[in-house]
Amino acid sequence: KNKTIWVLRPRLGCRGCPDFETRKLSKDNVLKTEMAQDLILDSKIMIWVLLPIALVMFLWDVLRFYATKSQSDKKPELKNIQEGQTLRRSALLRANGRYLQPQSFNSRRAHFTNKDTGVLVTLAPKTSGPPNPLENQEMMMDMMKSNMFKNILPNILLMGWVNFFFSGFLVGKMPFPLTPGFRKMLQRGVELADLEPTYISSLSWYFICMYGRKGLLSLCIGEGNDMDEAKMMQSQMQMMQSPQQADMGKVFAAEKESLDLANPTWIVDDAEKYLLKDFKRS
């Protein structure tokens, strides 16, 4: 009855540690020990496995965020700026023409709408229609390269790195019980049918960090980060399927026609009427 038994228990998830540990158990507790199947995880796993995976994933996301931000801050083309400013000046002339003398307004309108030297005529694009993103092969190739080097290829390399250096490690345990259906999700790379589904493997920890990093990035970088791959791909598809941009040739022609039809009345001609209205109000 007082006989004791030395039991060998497997010690998984610890490289460099003994394969088994010995524990002195009484004969009555042998059956309970075998049924519990508790695993002892080395505390060094947190330092050498769990934290490096999370840190590398976070640093890569920060690097990709700033790289994407630097590429998106491209200077607009001079031609586009010139076209936009020309349309803006023409619209301001139409809106504020009543503050100019008729001769001044007509000379400024001729500067924009003259058939030979008018700005709205010479700067109008000669293209027959708006650009179609689906027909621009260079734009599509740039989008594919950007998606490849920013999303697909880094994820493949990081997953290969985790699978090569940290294969077979158990990095933690869930604080609540789970059904066996979670075993495939939480124990990728560890093929043990008798292992409790609450344990988390290193490869599963990589996927948890990859899909759960958005909240940490929002705290460190801000709410304006666009690091979600699904949103990035959705924005690219919307850009390709969005309605075609406005034909700048037609925009210039419409602005020229509106400026030709503009016939503002000089505000000084009715100055006495405004003066009498002010006296009546007072």
Number of H- or I-type helical stretches: 12
Unreliable segments (pLDDT under 50, ≥5 consecutive)? 1-15, 18-36, 240-244
Quaternary structure classification: single chain
Structural class: mainly alpha
Task: Name the shape in a single word.
Answer: elongated
In the sheet with the most strands, the strands line up as 1-2
Percent in strands: 5-15%
Radius of gyration: 36 Å
Report the span from N to C terminus.
114 Å
Order of helices and strands: EEHHHHHHEHEHHHHH
Q: How would you characterize the largest beta sheet?
A: 2 strands, antiparallel
User: What is the typical, i.e. mean, pLDDT?
Assistant: 76
Number of strands: 4
Helix content: 55-70%
Task: Please characterize this protein's 3D structure.
This protein is mainly alpha-helical. Helices cover 56% and strands 7% of the residues. The protein has twelve helices and four strands, in the order ββααααααβαβααααα. The chain has a two-stranded antiparallel ribbon with strand order 1-2. The longest helix has 29 residues. The termini are far apart. The relative contact order is 0.13. The N terminus is likely disordered.
